[in-house]
Amino acid sequence: MASRALLARGSNNAPLRICRQCLLLRHAARASQSRSIATRVLQKRAAAEKAWNEKAQLIKYGKAPHPWDILKERGYVKDIAGTDQQIAELMRTKRIGAYVGIDPTAPSLHVGHLVPLMALYWMYVHGYRAHAVIGGATAKIGDPTDRLQSREPMTRATVATNITKTHYQLKRLWANVDNQARRFGYEKEWAWERALFNNSMWYNNTPFIEVVQRLFKGLRLGPLLSRETVKRRMTEGDGMSLDEFVYPLLQAWDWWHMFSSPKQIQMQIGGSDQYGNIISGIEAIKYMRNHEPNPNRRKSDDLFNTPVGFTVPLLTDSSGAKFGKSAGNAVWLDQFMTSTFDLYAYFMRRPDADVENLLKLFTFLPLERIKEIMEEQNRDSSKRPAQHALAFEVVALVHGVAEATATQAQHRGLYSRREDAPQELRIVPNELHAKDVNMASAFRVDIQLPESCVMHNSIASILYAAGLAPSKTEANRLTKQQGAYIGGAPGQPSASNKGMSYGDLTFTPVKTWFPEDTKNFLIDGKLLILRRGKHFIRVVEMVSDEEWEASGKTYPGEPYKGEMRQLRQALKDAAGGRDLGFKASELQAILSEQSTIDFHKRLEEDKSGEKRQLTFLERRRLGRKTNAQHKTPIDRYLANKPAKEAAARKLLQARRRGEIPEISGD
């Protein structure tokens, strides 16, 4: 090989030759070089490093609390992979990266996922790099830990649905964590870092032979066969397939990929059943670290380059049932699967003996405040102040403070209970604002549409039918301005788009295309993923026209359903019997504003339970310095049309007061 690597020239004009392995090493060395960084960024990094070192000294001499001690005090640490002293020193001296992995084997997260996530969130608010990883690739196999039977295989459509819903749930959780941090006095610093990954990102671009060569070569069968999960499956269960057998190795490769990247994610946080997988991951990372073929990427064997991890405790209720289960069903974080009322009620039912521990695990409340709450609880447990505090903080974390306030008011008896089904935001408002992340939680992700709508209409009509635009006109504008997205292969034209890779979640801007091109974006021939803005997502399941007709459902723009006729008649009644000749665009504007009434009505109910005056803002006359985004649909389409505007506002005021039912095609 050495002789082949020498540069050779047979003559003055002979081409320059170099062996392939040397070429790859040279290319890797170049790729590992950092790109140019602005001076200001370098200055910020230096300032952040200086502040971290100063904080480390304060911790060393007991003048500041140690984040590792905080995690232990609050009860997050069960089993440690590494040593206690090792992790404490590592967290004191280095801004390490940590991650929690979640396989999307269900269409929603449940409250059991919050325990390892809360440990990660606490590290985040103390300045560590925090990452959540969705197992888009590993979910195709499923973690066999503590299972005696193999999991039922999931279809591509199911995997895509679960990945999409989990992804956007985690995004909303991160946004709410930032809000919670501000509530409790944690001022966000420049160096705070959080990210959301899907392991399909690297598995879809990693040759299988590389995983075998780098990872499998350093592991022995003896330790793998001696794992308790393997022995139980072989003796008590239905045996173990090879894909389940190597699952811990794939999880180890996830960790290695992030550990060896510039982010250097050094810590894994897992559920109580993940200790064996974490240990396997640490052994695999140490082997690959010590046998890195590229000298430019090889890390030294010291504390700063040692992987560590810990597991959180398994929570059970007083009956011994796994925490997060209710009558055999998980308590979901999707409000359309477990309503906010029922989520609040679940935590209200926690016994007094458990509630203090749960306050430490599920909230950002300081320990001093928890102590005060428990003293109040001990004085008079009939009012259940501890349960109310716990339930409020969990709902605030999952669904936002506004929803938690409204739900707490219901449970305190100030309002009658709402229906179990949450109020749904059916159509995305035209103007999207920074608070959209909370509004998006009222926007159902998974819906159905008939085949005739999906396969025989323009993409603008599909966006309108899915509620991602208040009118076809607005939907056409979105397609022209590339303001909407569809799940598919980025950069490929619609006529030849190959769709998303299996287990991945990628989007490409929606453009005008022929109806027959829509089939290229279907997953399993029946699933379409659409998005508007950052937070509003629709997973559209295409059903047969017969099934749709039997369901009795309708969608915006559905032919012959009479929605427009109903609205025209209601407006005629509001105008004293006069037909004001509303145009289609004006009617769609009124429907768009109607769709947000129920959602905003809840937000406008204050904590005392008294309803504020509910009136429409006066129409804003836009001057040169007025932000056009403040225009409502009524402003936009009925400006300078006083008779039409008066009728529309009268109708919507009556709807807001609940005097008339919602105008729909049902």
UniProtKB/TrEMBL annotation:
Keyword vocabulary terms for this entry: Aminoacyl-tRNA synthetase, ATP-binding, Ligase, Nucleotide-binding, Protein biosynthesis
Tree of life domain: Eukaryota
E.C. designation(s): 6.1.1.1
Reaction catalysed by this enzyme: tRNA(Tyr) + L-tyrosine + ATP = L-tyrosyl-tRNA(Tyr) + AMP + diphosphate + H(+)
Family: Belongs to the class-I aminoacyl-tRNA synthetase family.
A Pfam cross-reference name: TyrRSs_C
PANTHER family listed in its UniProt record: TYROSINE--TRNA LIGASE, MITOCHONDRIAL, TYROSYL-TRNA SYNTHETASE
Every Tyrosyl-tRNA synthetase C-terminal domain range: 438-559
Segments for region (Disordered): 621-640
Protein name in the entry: Tyrosine--tRNA ligase
Provenance organism: Monosporascus cannonballus
Key word Manganese present: no
InterPro entries: aa-tRNA-synth_I_CS (IPR001412), aa-tRNA-synth_Ic (IPR002305), Rossmann-like_a/b/a_fold (IPR014729), S4_RNA-bd_sf (IPR036986), Tyr-tRNA-ligase (IPR002307), Tyr-tRNA-ligase_bac-type (IPR024088), TyrRSs_C (IPR032005)
